[in-house]
Amino acid sequence: MTQPEFKCAIVVSDELPTGLAVNAASVLSLTMGHRVDGLVGVDVKDADGVVHPGVVYTPLPILVAPREQIGTIVEIAAAQDGMFFVSFNSLAQSCKTYEEYIDKMAATPTADLASVGVGLYGPRKQVNKLVGSRPLLR
Question: Which CATH number does the domain 6-42+50-131 belong to among 3.40.50.2000, 3.20.20.20, 3.40.47.10, 3.40.1490.10?
Answer without folding.
Answer: 3.40.1490.10
